[in-house]
Structures are given as structure tokens and as C-alpha cells.
Amino acid sequence: MKICGLQKTTLLDYPGYVAATIFLGGCNFCCPFCQNSQLLEEDAPWVYSQNEILSFLSKRKGILEGVCVTGGEPTLSPRLPDFLSKIKDLGFLIKLDTNGSRPDALRFLVRQKLVDYVAMDIKAGRDNYKKAAGISSLSLSQIEESVKFLMEGTVSYEFRTTAVKGIHTEKDFMDIRLWIKGCPHYYIQNYVESENVLQPVFQSFSRPELENFASLMSSYVETVILRGVENY
Description:
Elements: E1 3-10, E2 19-24, H1 50-59, E3 66-70, H2 80-89, E4 93-98, H3 103-111, E5 117-121, H4 129-133, H5 141-151, E6 156-163, H6 170-179, E7 186-190, H7 207-217, E8 224-227
Parallel strand pairs: 2-3, 3-4, 4-5, 5-6, 6-7, 7-8
Antiparallel strand pairs: 1-2
Helix pairs in contact: 3-5, 6-7
């Protein structure tokens, strides 16, 4: 397991809780708009040991309430269950970020009560998924399996889509709303250009454009929330 980053405090990553965010290296997607491109490769820098992270968390008990584990794609690590178990033993809630490509791993973590909240990316509408994920050979069956599992309500969850001008159109959201109809929380995150973007050729949507996407979703899911629209 490569622990490549640590955000010591966040009020945004785990809704309703003060948390820390742990970044794991390695991913099986290659989304062209990825903000964490430095974490994608096998040679992603290994910055922290598990013991260093656990020591930090033990000192923050009573201050932090939760831990977010993100990537990359965390479920690729065979040591993830053991790591999450140790975090749970310290008394923290755990939020897992995932692309949903490994439904068996997701089910295992949930059924072992190693995660309390799951945030799953819905990269695009189904016809556009391969382009958004950057994987031409991608099979959607595993993604669909993860969506179905989360919508059974075994664990608290959210779906989210990073809206990218150059990737997404209204058609994507019109398909996504049918796919996740009835889910409790759906977030539309605005793309933000940065030096770590894998292919920095895209643009952000304007606030009216994002609000239009939200309106398309609003009668299909319980709550639609826009993120990253403050400056648009």
C-alpha cells in the first residue's frame, strides 16, 4: 500500500464531520481530467508508512471525527481492509472514495463494517463512460454492479460527477438521472484547472450551465448539490 498524501484536516471531504484525508497511490482508470495524476502510476511516491498515519491519527483522537480514504483507487490495495480495521480500532468513522470498478472489494469492506460512508464517482453517462474514464476497454458491468449495491442502502453513500466542459453534455446527465434514480445524495463538482491535471485541455462550466445540469437531476434524486461553483 502506497500512502502518497495526507490532508490533516478537512471540513469538506466527509459531510458533517471534521476529518483527515489519506491519499493512496495507484489507479485502474486514466480519467483525462484527473486532479491527482501524480497518484496514478505504479511509481507514485510513497510518502508515509501505515505506522506514521496511525500514530498521527491516535494523537488527533477527540479532534478529528472521521478519516477519508481516497486515491487513486483505494480498493486496488490488498492491504486496505487491515489498514481500515486499524483506523476503526482508533474510533474513527471512515469514508471511502471509489470509482466503483471493484464491486467485490466494495461489498467486502461494507459487509465487514470497515467503512461508514461511500462516495462513488459516476464518471459520465453510459455511452460516454469510456471517454471519461480514459479506458477504451472498460466494461460497465462492474460499475453498474457497484451502483446497484450502494442503492440497496447497506451503507450511507453519495454519487458524484465532476462536470468537465469538453467531456460532458446534457445528454450525460439525462442518462445518469435514470441510472441512479432515487439515490439520496448526488453532487456535481465543477472541473478546476490545476498543474496536476492529467490532460490540461479542458474548461469549467459556468454557474448557469451547472445549475441546468442540477435541474435535470432534481426530480430524479433526493438531493442535488453543486460543488466548486463559488467563482463561476
